[in-house]
Design goal:
flat, single chain, 2 helices, 87 residues, 0% strand, mainly alpha, 56% helix
C-alpha cells in the first residue's frame, strides 16, 4: 500500500511540474502577442493643423551625474591609505 501511494504522489508531483513549466512557457508568449495602443501626446490634442512638439532631449543631467561620480571617485582616491579606524 505504501509503495502505491508513494508512486501516485511522485506521479502527481511530476504532473504538477509539467503543468508549471507549460504555464511558464505559455504566459510570456501571450503577453508578447498583445499589441500596444498608439501613443497620443495629450498636449497636441485639439489642434486643427498638424503640430509637433520639438524634441527637448538634453544630455545635461547625464553630464552632471558623470561629474558628480567623478568627484566622488577622486575623493576616495586621495584618501590616506594609512589611516586608522580610530579617527
Amino acid at each position: 500500500m505504501i509503495d502505491r501511494n508513494m508512486t501516485s504522489l511522485m506521479n502527481l508531483n511530476r504532473v504538477r511540474r509539467v503543468l508549471i513549466v507549460a504555464a511558464a512557457g505559455v504566459l510570456p508568449a501571450a503577453a508578447l502577442a498583445q499589441e500596444e495602443p498608439p501613443k497620443n501626446d495629450a498636449r497636441l490634442e485639439g489642434y486643427e493643423a498638424r503640430v509637433q512638439v520639438e524634441s527637448g532631449d538634453s544630455t545635461a543631467l547625464t553630464w552632471l551625474l558623470l561629474v558628480f561620480l567623478a568627484m566622488v571617485l577622486m575623493g576616495a582616491m586621495f584618501k590616506n591609505a594609512k589611516r586608522t579606524h580610530l579617527d
